[in-house]
Amino acid sequence: MKTKKTEAVRSAIMRSVKSTNTKPEMVVRRLAHRLGFRFRLPQGMTADMILHARFMVGDTVVMASDGPHVEPMRSAYLALSVDNNEEAERIYKALTEGGQVFMAMTETFFAHRFGQFRDKFGVNWMVIHERPMPRG
Questions:
Q1: 0.70 exceeded by the pTM?
Q2: Which of 96, 98, 100, 101 is most buried (CB neighbours < 10 A)?
């Protein structure tokens, strides 16, 4: 829900981004620091790295993050969330053919089905049929 206050903060951040040619996340970090918030990054992470990003492409959620001491594109995964076990197994089978399995499709405490692998083109994947998590 947008309020006048949140819209004013957003406008101030965007003005600062335009006038200083600075990335929005750095403007937010500086603003938070001035307001007394302190960030403690995980070991090996630097202020210019992305800890967590989440955005929508149509009806699909895309999540991404940087990590410490990683190989370019060897530590990046595309996460594909599906609605049932059969779809998870179908996609896993198709994409692992000719690739490298890191974690075989299995049941976990957080998912009905979960698997990690690199496809034959070198793209890393996580396929998940999530288990509902209790709230609160």
A1: no
A2: 96
